[in-house]
Amino acid sequence: MWRRAYLFLILVRLWFAMSPSYLHPDENFQGPEVIAGEVFSYPVRLTWEFTSDHPIRSVFPLWPVYGLPMFLLRWLWIGNGGDGEIPPYAVFWVLRILMFIMNFVLLDWAIYELVPAKRHRQTAVLLVASSYVTWTYQTHTFSNSVETVVVAWSLVLIDRIVAGRQDRASLLAPTVLGIVVVFGIFNRITFPAFLLIPGLRLIPYFLNKPLSFAAMALSGLMTTIVAIAFDTAFYTPHQISWGDLLFRPVITPLNNLMYNMSPANLAEHGLHPWYQHLLGNIPLLIGPAAALLFLQPHFSLRLYSAVSGIFVLSIFQHQEARFLLPTIPLILSSVQLPRNPRLLNTWVAAWIAFNTVLGILMGVYHQGGVVPTQIFMSRQPDATQAIWWKTYSPPIWLLNGKNEVLQTRDVMGLPGDRLMEQLAELATCDTPADRRNSEFLKEKNGTYLIAPLSATWLDPYLPNKGLEGLRFREVWRYRQHLNLDDLDWGEDGVWNTLSRVIGRRGIAAWRVTKSCPDKAKR
């Protein structure tokens, strides 16, 4: 029975992986956007983490996770006679499938190894596989999703070393652990927080077997040198030399740590109370399982790893729910289900309902139209200006080189009157072609506004068909889109806000024109 349920949940995970929901801009701008610009000829936009004087993001973990698949795709594309570069949307979906496979194979395998008792193991695997976090966050290209797998396999390697499952003369597990730990640190500086308590188990082992410690230290040192070389080469404007590596190395984890030690820097991203992770983010991520965590925990090294991670992350004042992704499989594999049949049935029903609702919300509708709309914009021959309002930043690399002529303006929080001023400046002159259904595509220049349908501020302007002011022609609409950053409970009230955001779900693109004197018409 549990095998059939598990296979069904794998299909559910794959379905969500292939949904174009957009959980956070970091899933593009801290990963695929960077590497796509290196592997392909796509023009990209690097965020401040990569362009500051002291860059805080390492490209070293990005190459094996995203770079190698992109190189493989390019090789297959050229080898099969493909003309030009492979379309970005194909790369986008392949990376989603890759994340699905990586988590389905590596994460589930790690949980299977970490839970020794068969009955508890089956429950743990099903809980992890049925979590909306596994369906959504773990199938997206987050560094947090990669960190989840790295943390889990670090615990597996520690367990193998201490339990003596390897051959006595083998140094393989300590060597691999050294590589994995350095990879985890360069992926996210928070990674060591999850190994504070599990790492203590290695101290007596290494005291008895110093050669194993030497193997781990040597592999870690070599991996660190390679990682620093990758970052130094990426961030140095000229071809690097040994002098650059020795005297001017770019050590991104150190830069990241120094940046996050400053409260002023964290304040730019939002400050939270120390209990945000514990009382807010954990219930948001695991729902009904939070009660089991506090009432019926199964004390294990996995749980201790999660606790140490939550404790350290709570010290920093900027606390997003996705920072806790590595703790979710550790917690879900460390809870005990109610033994009373009635309570068990009630809890299971609540668990299914919670993950179904959150899965659909986050895995399908959350900013779900941004990626499809950007693919649509890449195919508009007249598009030269695109203004995105009240949406997440669109991934530039999905434009397939269109951004050589298309300027994308992200004005998410711009007041409505300022938006209209920008549109008035950028709108092209209304021509006879604009008044016909599709002839406007033959124009050389075109200005587009992309905004959610829930942006009711635009309503008075959209029907304008007169000679004065701006005119909006809707050319694209995608219904599976919710803008949860546009909730105005105080002004609109709860019911009106939900009616607006949910009832008017969707995103649209309008081609914007304006009246011009005859001499100004093109």
UniProtKB/TrEMBL annotation:
The keyword Transmembrane helix applies. Pfam families: Glyco_transf_22. It is a multi-pass membrane protein. InterPro entries: GPI_mannosylTrfase. The chain crosses the membrane at residues 58-77, 89-112, 170-191, 211-233, 343-365. It is found in: Endoplasmic reticulum membrane. Keywords: Endoplasmic reticulum, Glycosyltransferase, GPI-anchor biosynthesis, Membrane, Signal, Transferase, Transmembrane, Transmembrane helix. It comes from the Eukaryota. Its EC number is 2.4.1.-. GO terms for molecular function: glycosyltransferase activity. Residues 1-17 form the signal peptide. Pathway: Glycolipid biosynthesis; glycosylphosphatidylinositol-anchor biosynthesis. Belongs to the glycosyltransferase 22 family. PIGZ subfamily. This is Mannosyltransferase. It comes from Sporothrix curviconia. The gene is SMP3.
